[in-house]
Structures are given as structure tokens and as C-alpha cells.
Design goal:
This protein has 426 residues and is α+β, with helices and mostly antiparallel strands. Helix content is 49%, strand content 11%. The strands form four sheets. Strands 1-2-8-5-3 form a five-stranded mixed beta sheet, sandwiched between helices. A three-stranded antiparallel beta sheet has the order 4-12-9. Strands 6-7 form a two-stranded antiparallel ribbon. A hairpin with a 1-residue loop joins strand 10 and strand 11. Helix 5 packs antiparallel against helix 6, helix 5 runs parallel beside helix 16 and helix 11 runs parallel beside helix 16.
Length: 426
Amino acid sequence: MNPLEVVPREAYEADFFRAREGAARAWVMGPALLKQVLLDEREKFQKLTQIRLLSPLLGRGLLTSEGAEWKWQRQACAPMFRHQALLGFVPVFVRAAQGLLARWRAAPGAAQPAVQAIDRDVTRATFEIISATLLPSADATIGPVLEHSIASFQRSGGWAQLYASMRAPHWLPRPGIASGRRAAVALRAAVAAVIRERRANGGPDDLMHRLMAARDPESGQAMDDERLIDNLLTFYLAGHETTARALSWTLYLLSRSPGWSAALEDEVARVAGGAPLEAAHIERLALVQQVLKESMRLFPPVPMMSRQAVADTTLGGHAIRAGSSVIIPIYAIQRHAARWEDPHAFDPARFSPDKEAELGRYQYLPFGAGPRICIGMAFAMIEATAILATLLQHARFSPAPGPEPYPVASVTLLPRGGLPLRVSVK
């Protein structure tokens, strides 16, 4: 089940599309219409499908709440993600990338360029990072439980999306429903154990500590344990999975773009001088960040999102009735023929400072837009920049034999069958 395969051709060419006037589903691509949905009239468009999809796992956390409940959680969490504070995690990002390089060096046949499962390996590195910064635990069994449960939950992601969009009841049978429920129970139990451990033993000033200490600026309210579990899992899943997808697709694109690979290697050498990456280097890695942004344009980590109308309104002169679904196909919006020159081509120069300044705010949405823009955007960009630069200091990537990877929307954008690349490590 791949939701990308039902995106209509018109989504790549038009501002608005629905199969017939009055239909309960509309596709919205135009920047002005997206601004209306995500900002100007956001109270009329809510995340009901996403909440149905994710609330069995994420409860009523930041991603799966609306209104006042969402607002106070957002305000309480915001100080965790200040840019300067996040730079303090750069050594953690670099250590994870160095650990990945070490595993590649130790792999059988590593003396020659060897085929590695890039998506699996990069996901393991970002998993280690989010574990170290958000859910550190002295219990060595927690990590494998979380990793296994996440993989189980994702396997049925496409079917879960379909059923959520159809507003099917949670009890209705579908592929993967039983394993998904078991995964949700195991994940929530594992996080509850980490919270108990932290309360008993204390810990460092990491993201988990900051979330536990967070207070609503207006009421002074802290989160209870259920809400802590909701938000820890939200940041845990979003914090490693989406960054892993961005890095995997970036390495895939660089493996087929030797000119850009060489340019990035030169920039990293010039900025870091062969030393390990530091916080002070991040802002100076302009080309690295251009490449990451272009990769996320072509292969957005979250390729689709939706809103549901809770009141009658209009979009571009089209009547939208309460209860209608508005689909926002980010994958198509970022390859839209009217707004991107040669839209399917990999061209990081689109994000040079002068050209990026000309981009419309609602034509590039890898982190969403409006008040609900991804709170972890700065974390993800700093993390991805540090990991990519560290890998490029010591490794070269080239295509592996076999078919091209096929993108599949399963909450995040997965490569069907994995993403193997040849890796040569210095």
C-alpha cells in the first residue's frame, strides 16, 4: 500500500483538484490556499486524520492534540529547541556518525568498496542519537524494545493511513493491526520505565530532563506521566525517523552526483580542516545545508499530510463542506511544474542564499508551515549537517547494483526494498 501512487497528476500541475465538485476529498497545492489552510483559517482545518492514525501510540501529545491542549504543550516544549542550546548536542551527533564509520570499517570486505544498507545504518545512528539525548537509560534492554516496536508499528503504516483517512473505527480489522497494538503497548511501557528510572536517579541536562522540567508559561503546569510518555514518544519517533530518511535520500542523491559530492568534501575540509566537526562549524557548512534542503525537496521525509474541515468554508472559490478532507501532497508540491524549474532534477543551487530568498513560503514544506511547523526543525538540520559532514570526511558513496530505490509513503518516505550503496571508508 503506497499512498503516493494515488496522488493525481493534477497535484503536480494545479493549485486545487478534486475528482468532482462537492466531493469529500480535495487536493490543495497552491501557496495561497495552503496559507489559508495552515495559517489564516487554521481553526477551520484540524489534524483529525493524523490524530486518528497516531493517537493509539502517541496519545494526546504535541503532534496529536488541538486547540488549547496543543498550545500549552507547544509553549512548554519550545525552550527545549532553542538553536544555541541545540548546538551543545553536536558532539553527540558526531560520535554517532563516527560509530557508523567504525562499523563500516569493521564490516567484512571493507578493504574494498562494500555495499551497505544505508537506510538501515543511518537509522541506527539517528536512533543512537535520540536515545542519548531524549531517552537515555541504564537498562540495555530498552533500546532493542523501542527499535523492534517502532519497526513493527511502521510495517503497517500505509494501511493505517488509509483506514484513518476513511475514518474507519480502530477495531476494524486491517493488515498489521494486532502487531501495531502490541508495538504501541511495548513502546509506552518502555518509556514509562525510563521515566521511573529518571525520577529515581536523576540525570543530565538532556532533552528528557528539559521536557520533565517544562512548565506552561501561563499556568505553571507541568506534564503528568501520561503526557510525558505521549511527548517523549512523539519526539523519539519524529526525532530519529525523519532525520534518517533525509540523510538516506541525501546519500542516495550524492552517490549519483559526483560533482556535488566533491564540492561538499572540499567545503568540509576547508571548514573543519580534517578535525572532528564542532558546533562552530555548522553555520559555515553552507553547501552541505543546500544539499540537505534540495534532498528534502525531492524526497520529503513526511511526503503527505492532511487536514479536515470542521466548518463550511471556501478554498479558491471552491466550496469546502465541514467533514471534507484536504490533502496536502508535499511530495507533489515540491515537484510542482509551475513553481520549480526542471522540478524532478537534483539541483542544490536552488537553495543558494539569493535563490532561497525568492522561494514562496508555501511551496517548500519539509517541516510543514504555520503555527504547527515542526518544533524540531533546528534540531534536525543541525543533526543532519553534523552527520553528513562527518561521513563525507571519511567515506565515499557510489551506486550499488540493482534497481533504483522506489519511494513509498508509510508515514515517512521509505525506500521500498531498502537503499543499498557502495561505501568506501578511509
